[in-house]
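Fold this complex.
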Amino acid sequence: MSPRRRTRPLPFLLLAPFFTALFVFWFIPLLQGFHLSLESDDLYGNTSFVGFLHYRTLVHDARFWHALRNTFAYCALSVLLILPLALGLAHLLRRTYRKSRALIQFCLMLPGLTPPLVMALLYVLIFSGPFGLLNRVFLHPFGLPNVDWIRDPRFVKPSLALLAMWRWTGFITLIFLSGLEGIPGSYYDTARTEGASAGQLFRYITLPLLRPVTAFVAAFLFLDAFTLFEGAYVLLGGSGGVLDAGLLLISYSYITAFTLGNFGSAVAISFSSLPLLMLVLWFILTQGRIRLFSAVKFSAAKRLPA
Amino acid sequence: MFPAKRFPIKKQAAPLMATLALAALCVAFAFPFVWMFCASFKSDADIFTPFPLLPHHFNPRYYSSLLDGSWIPYPRQFLNSLFIAIVETFLATSFAAGSGYVFAKFHFRHKQPLFILAVLTVLIPRQVLILPLFIWMNKLSLLDTPWSVILPGAASGIGILYFTAIFRRLPDALLDMTRCEGAGEYRVFLGALPLVKPALIAFALIQFVLCWQEHLVPLIMLSTQTHLTVTVGLSSLNAGSMRVPYGLLLAGCTLTVVPTALFFALVHRQFQSALSRLTEA
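Structure:
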């Protein structure tokens, strides 16, 4: 047997498991979900084809638009909170605190290693009502009235964003730190000999070179915020909270499916958010000049006999 | 080398401010965990008085009542979580590493559309597909088994992007060297794996942490008490109608941090080196 013949099956053997899993547990549910969103079922489990009825109802559903706005506001808020903080921390940690760095990193990482459910529970214990640690330790001794941080609709979205920040800052800092270490020190030395200030170094060397990392991280955070469920679930008990201030798309879909028992409409809710989600992610990734579809364009790849 | 600039006040104050801010942030981030750990040993009356932090005497009664399973089958749920996280991590890492290797090192027909398909799975996360997935799992009669949580997570689009980038950085000359010595393609692939070991570990760590934390998928897929994962079990304990002592809840929460924190502490050096290698220009 010639070596050429032997090379052929391997790539397909390696690709097969991934694409089988993708086909069975991603593609089929996607198609089925679309089909499901075109159907309606009555209380007796009889389904009938209703076309795009669910989608058309959503257009006039104020609660859906509210949830959509909430979700994107919360996603954007958490990304905008975390990115500057993590970048600043990484910049600070890069040159200084050599000895205590491991400890600092572990402190910052600890929330990221904890299930969000546990963090949400802790958050409730710290922030809620008269028993909350925050009210007890900081407000009572000074004679200030209780603030109900969780039930007050003004604080719900910031609370969720704060949870996301608590969870991800350490992890993102670690990624930025690694990104910073990948930038050759000679760039900075050259710029410094030409008299660049610290601000200029940051603006013209660090930021542009970190662009792909930043875009990747932003996309990751956005996606995570979008799919986060347990924070809102624990904080608000699976509902939208007072005045629906914390109603996210994923909880709205969950309520519609499991509380109201309307599967078709619930799937329509999650599917109609997809184009917008994909558009935002697409925008973020292209801003970072991450070429998603460039798998083909490299010459060194070994060409298989066709 | 360079003449020191003379800003006496700024030079003194800025690092001090930075250190103070950093210390405050670290305390704010880590304090709830320290409190959680200490409070889980305190008596019921003292739980919500945070200071003094340490309990008068360490009373592990809630840990023992968790572990003997008198409230919920906690040890069983903990093992379920471990099983799901380990198997899912193994499958996702090996699938993604294998496919990433092929995308980076081989050229074949329909490569572009396949790659785009893999990237699309990143843009359409499985949490959005959860309801049709639930019905599909029901048809496959996998519902309420660990596989209904593991298998949807086995195909990781981000993993494909990551490992394609990683293997692209691996010089072809290294692979050709093993080929010259008569190794088959299979051996060449196996030989390439140790060369990207930090990347494998980094990906496995992230995957493990995310699996361990997953809540929505097991909440919907699993229903029997003894089949639940530890996060779902704890949330059912919290939301249930019975009055659960807070100490018990805190003890359960404390234990969930242990596996991921251990994993991170063990591999954090390799984790960082893998990440910086990826971002190198």
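The first strand of chain A starts at residue 39 and ends at 41.
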